[in-house]
Amino acid sequence: MDIALGQLKLAADAETNLAQITASAEQAAASGARMLVVPEGLTARDSADPYAGANHPQSLDGPLVSGIRAVSARLGLAIAGSLHTPVPGARVANTGFIVDGGELVACYRKIHLYDAFSARESRHVQPGVDEPPVVEIDGLPIGLMICYDLRFPETARSLAVRGAQLIVMPAAWAAGPLKEMHWQVLAMARAVENTVYLAACSEVSSVNIGRSLLVDPLGVVVAAAGTGPELLIGHVDPGALARARTVLPVLANREYRDPQLRSAGGHRGPA
User: Which superkingdom (predicted)?
Assistant: First the structure.
């Protein structure tokens, strides 16, 4: 499967962002990609207000996702991203989604909120409570997580033990000291420690780094973007993943069993 990462500089309105997503989707489909990942917070972005999207929430049946579903149906392209959605109370949810064939096939409310480096996402966003989903597209199990989830290894591990071979991650990774290094090192670690492909797509702006990347199951960055808007395309090879899991069977060898990381698999040596 070829996967595209649409590294966008998002605007302060959903209509402009839908137009950008549509253009990226058309370019991705023309290049032979089967899936497109776009950034986090698609309803609105403003460099002067990191929580602009929280002030412009839309439901999953609103015009933005409905437009993305129409693009998906027209192009035969799966699309993953995130937007802020209304929930009861004063805050909103940061909701990831995957659409395919015009249908919403997965959604996930971000669990880990970015309360770090002086940011306080939890002031505006209510955390999710359900574990992130795994869905199959063309026989490939795909997991979904969002941005700050990358810093919590349990998130990716929970997807891997439930069968994910590719993890897609919309993000808006904030710039700052060491942040680009953290982004790449953590993406490589999440991929190799779970022997999965990881497709991480960050928004690019004066406050977010871009640097979207695709990492293979042995932790090798196989495609990487720069610091401007661009479409990045890479290949996900189930055969390479199977070979990686043969030479590096960390999922089969693991002994630690947190009850939250549900799996009947694994291996135990002699007593």
Answer: Bacteria
What does the pLDDT look like over 32-41, one tens digit per residue? 999 999 999 9
Q: Is the pLDDT assigned to residue 85 strictly greater than 70?
A: yes
Closest C-alpha among 248, 190, 243 to residue 221: 190
Q: Hey, which residues are catalytic here?
A: 40, 110, 147
Q: Which residue do the tokens 């026989």 mark? A: 139
Residue 202 and residue 171 in contact, taking contact as beta carbons nearer than 8 Å: yes
Residue 271: predicted pLDDT? 33
Written out in words, the top-level CATH class of the domain with range 2-247 is alpha beta
Q: Per-residue pLDDT averaged across 107-135, rounded?
A: 97
- How many residues does this entry show for the chain? 271
- The answer to whether 158 and 196 are in contact (CB under 8 A) is no
46-50, Cβ contacts within 8 angstroms, sequence gap of 24 or more: 46/12, 47/205, 47/206, 47/207, 50/119, 50/174, 50/207
Residues contacting residue 94 through CB under 8 Å, at least 6 positions apart: 40, 41, 82, 83, 84, 109, 110, 113, 121, 125, 128, 146
